[in-house]
Write a structure and sequence with these properties.
- A five-stranded parallel beta sheet has the order 2-3-1-4-8, sandwiched between helices.
- The N and C termini lie close together (about 10 Å).
- By secondary structure, the protein is of the alpha/beta class.
- It has a single domain, classed as P-loop containing nucleotide triphosphate hydrolases (Rossmann fold, 3-Layer(aba) Sandwich).
- The chain contains eight helices and eight strands.
- About 45% of the residues lie in helices and about 15% in strands.
- The chain binds zinc ion.
């Protein structure tokens, strides 16, 4: 099972990715995790990529592609894999397609989970986090017993900077601008499914499973 999962923050993509990887017993490949893991490695690729990250630059596509393709040749990826956060652009999508078609393979499913910007904004901007223990609440869906106070440790609840409405809106707009060409690229390919992520985690999971069947 070869799956690509695409979706903005706040649609439950991370949860769904973990679930599918467990269900199909395939590795969950996130380029973000790969870059983080690489900081402990001493390979040629790792050195070059680290130099870019340390300069505050994006890792160039050819490097990212080389890392991903190296990863796909590891034994655990033989029965399939799930991508999360890759491909990020057309150059990466084409490199992945080329690699797969050289092996006589194609992606089985490209799943694009999305929801209305207003809904996602409300979900993220309503989050409150405990300063002491990190427990997460929501002003509408998971209210603490006492306003602004953690149920578990009586710590103070606050809103993270990343969760503030203006930040969320900006991130979502950037996300959609960056992702639009990728969606156009995959839209007409076999296995592409747009999935409505406006329901809860369980409902979204059911829609994903229906699409995969
Ligand atoms: Zn707490």
């Amino acid at each position: 099972m070869k799956i690509i999962l695409i979706g903005p923050p706040g649609v439950g993509k991370g949860t769904e990715a973990k679930r599918l990887a467990t269900l199909f017993d395939i590795p969950h490949i996130s380029t973000g995790d790969m870059f983080r893991a690489m900081f402990d490695e001493d390979t040629e690729l790792a050195k070059i990529a680290k130099a870019h990250i340390n300069r505050g630059e994006l890792v160039p596509d050819d490097l990212t592609n080389a890392m991903v393709i190296e990863r796909l040749q590891e034994p655990d990826a033989k029965k399939g894999f799930l991508f999360d956060g890759y491909p990020r652009n057309i150059v990466q999508a084409k490199a992945l397609d080329d690699f797969l078609s050289n092996q006589g393979e194609t992606m089985d499913a490209v799943l694009y989970i999305d929801a209305d910007i207003e809904l996602i904004t409300e979900r993220i901007a309503g989050r409150r986090v405990c300063k002491s223990c990190g427990a997460v609440y929501h002003v509408n869906y998971k209210k603490p017993k006492v306003d602004g106070v953690c149920d578990q440790c009586q710590g103070v609840l606050y809103q993270r900077k990343d969760d503030m409405e203006a930040t969320v809106r900006r991130r979502l707009h950037i996300y959609h601008d960056v992702t639009a060409p990728i969606i156009d690229y995959y839209k007409h390919q076999q296995g592409f499914h747009a999935i409505d992520g406006s329901g809860n985690i369980e409902e979204t999971h059911q829609k994903v499973m229906d699409a995969i069947q």
